[in-house]
Amino acid sequence: MKVEQKDRRTWLWGCIYVGAFIVVFAISVIIKMTYNPLSGEMNVNWNDSVGRMYTDIAYGDQEKNKFDLYVPADHTKKSYGLVVYLHAGGFTGGDKSDDINMLKWLTSKGYVAAGINYTLRDEKHPTASVDTMSQEIKKSMPIVKAEAQKLGYPLDRMAIAGGSAGGTLALLYAYRDADTSPIPVKMVYEMVGPPSFFPQDWISYGLDQNPAAAAGLFSVMSGHVITPDMIGTERYKEAVKGISPYMWINANSVPTLAGYGRYDKIAPFGAVKHLINALNEHHVPYDYFEFPHSGHGLQNDNKIYAQYMDKLNEYLDRYMGS
Q1: What PANTHER family does its record include (predicted)?
Q2: DSSP E strands: which ranges in the chain?
Q3: Is the pLDDT of residue 23 over 60?
Q4: By CB atoms within 10 Å of each CB, which of 49, 82, 232, 282 scores lowest?
């Protein structure tokens, strides 16, 4: 009976914190839609002389299993680089169309670009998790490659990127799935994507003080059953490994460009140290930009943003060519 009561408390705390998490990340969607730190310098006068866009190409059976493909006007090259950008939205909202400026800008630089949707956690999909979303992204890549090939754009290298939830999914693909990618992954860039899921780092949600709530929320996010007694053990690490990008970093991981806000309470800033420590430990080339006056929207540090943009262009030139 006591075990059943304990499980019920964990379930109830999970429901409460999932609800709170959804509300907070809904706010993050609004932030990202009303202020995108990457949008200012990415306005492109889009026309046929720049490229073409093909929308809602299916890569699976689920409603959200669609992607948009942007191809440059110049179709004379023997091969092209692909840049995939994954949308923000806290794993509960957002859409590939939110990143249209980014995708058009990348295409104007000569890359094939793709925005990919994935099944979000909502009332219709209560079992969707960060892990299932990452598996859908993985599933989409051969289809993206094949569609580009059909259009006359053979792909031989790729970068993957994203913001917030999309940043986490981009890091997962770059570190966990690069070895099996149908297109060689050369780099990853992202902003404010949670790289780890330890309760002690998620203090803005009070998870450091509430093991039952932490177990409930991270059970939902990981897709695995986590109990309060697992927290702090190897069993816990194994349960969240599938959604924790930093755990997949090794000496062969791709160069990484990352940006985080010191005052971010939506994707807690305390989690960033695990990413940086792992990159240092394995001697992975990376550049990290800390936005000292900003939260999740990164809206208060324009000089740092400009430096990030300069470094992004440098990364694209160095690792992706043109």
Answers
A1: AB HYDROLASE SUPERFAMILY PROTEIN C4A8.06C (PTHR48081)
A2: 51-58, 66-72, 80-86, 112-116, 155-163, 185-191, 256-261, 286-291
A3: no
A4: 49
What does the pLDDT read at residue 272? 98
CA-wise closest residue to 289 among 307, 264, 266? 307
- Tokens 């299993």 sit at which residue? 65
Domains and CATH numbers, the chain: 2-320 (3.40.50.1820)
Dist CA 185 CA 115 (whole Å)? 16
Pairing of strands 256-261, 185-191: parallel
Three-class SS state of 69 = strand
User: Among residues 157, 4, 146, which one has the least CA distance to residue 69?
Assistant: 146
Task: Establish how many alpha carbons lie within 13 A of residue 78's alpha carbon, considering only the half-sphere containing its beta carbon.
Answer: 0
**Mean pLDDT along residues 173-192:** 98
Strand order across the 66-72 sheet: 51-58, 66-72, 112-116, 80-86, 155-163, 185-191, 256-261, 286-291
Instruction: Specify the DSSP element, H or E, that contains 48.
Output: none
pLDDT band at 43; cut points 50, 70, 90: confident
Distance of alpha carbon 315 from alpha carbon 322, whole angstroms: 11
Please determine, for residue 208, whether its predicted confidence score (pLDDT) is greater than 50. yes
In degrees rounded to 5, what are phi and psi of residue 53? -120, 135
